[in-house]
Specification:
The chain has 232 residues and is α/β, with parallel strands linked by helices. It has eight helices and 15 strands. The strands form three sheets. Strands 1-2-3-4-5-6-7 form a seven-stranded mixed beta sheet. Strands 8-9-10-11-14-15 form a six-stranded mixed beta sheet. Strands 12-13 form a two-stranded antiparallel sheet. A hairpin with a 4-residue loop joins strand 10 and strand 11. The longest helix has 13 residues. The protein is globular and about 45 Å long. The mean pLDDT is 93.
Length: 232
């Protein structure tokens, strides 16, 4: 059987999803392959979520997409403070002069980013301090879009999800993955709390809601209800 060859353009297309009025472009950055996402609509206002870019090559990929689409970056958002999700904070804040947003409860980890980076074989410049702390129920507004902040600790303190109730999707960081859940054995992790967050804040959403994890591919609330062995 001859395998069908997939062109570069097809690969890029698969990383670009339309969710109603919003476009989500995913990049796989750094050795840990974090999902860095750029969200924008036809107003060309955008946000960058979990900038994991940590090389000049990755910086250039991100910049080319933003330049090609003539986007204005309104916010840079971290779903949680683990080093693979924040490695590009310095470059992004310097390049786009946009406010850096995260949850305050993760600052004890964030401020130790250099030490954690060494453990994962990464090198980081001095990390910029956040401009805005996000809390449960806050809204992130850009273009014609509104994302609701859900506070979802368990993977680590300071973990948040971003829910778009109209277009029915969630950027869920490392809380839940397709057929799996996040680690809880890292500092400030708590497996029982994490499962509680998933069941109370994710699985209660409309079953067609699309989940965009911090690693790997997308899934849905319905699929995880039916198939995730950790949620039995």
């Amino acid at each position: 059987m001859v395998k069908k060859r997939i062109s570069l353009s097809e690969i890029i297309l698969n990383l670009t999803k339309k969710m109603g009025t919003i476009t989500i472009r995913t990049f796989h950055f750094n050795p840990i392959m974090v999902n860095t996402m750029v969200l924008h609509d036809d107003t060309r206002e955008a946000i960058i979520v979990d900038p994991g870019n940590c090389s000049s090559y990755e910086d250039a990929q991100l910049q080319q997409y933003i330049d090609d689409n003539q986007l204005t970056v309104k916010y840079i958002v971290n779903t949680h403070p683990h080093v693979d999700h924040i490695a590009g904070n310095r470059w992004c804040t310097q390049t786009y002069k946009a406010p850096l947003c995260c949850h305050e409860a993760g600052m004890s980890i964030y401020n130790q980013a250099h030490a954690y980076a060494v453990a994962f074989g990464l090198q980081l410049d001095d990390m910029p301090q956040p401009d805005k702390f996000l809390h449960e129920g806050d809204e992130i507004r850009f273009g014609n879009q509104i994302l609701e902040v859900l506070y979802t600790p368990g993977h680590c303190e300071g973990s948040i999800c971003l829910h778009h109730p109209t277009e029915k999707f969630v950027l869920c960081g490392d809380l839940i993955f397709e057929g799996s859940v996040g680690r809880s054995d890292l500092p400030t992790g708590n497996g029982a709390i994490m499962l509680q967050m998933i069941k109370n804040k994710i699985l209660t959403l409309d079953e067609s809601t699309v989940l965009y994890p911090g690693h790997g591919g997308t899934t849905t609330v319905d699929f995880e209800k039916m198939n995730n062995p950790f949620l039995v």
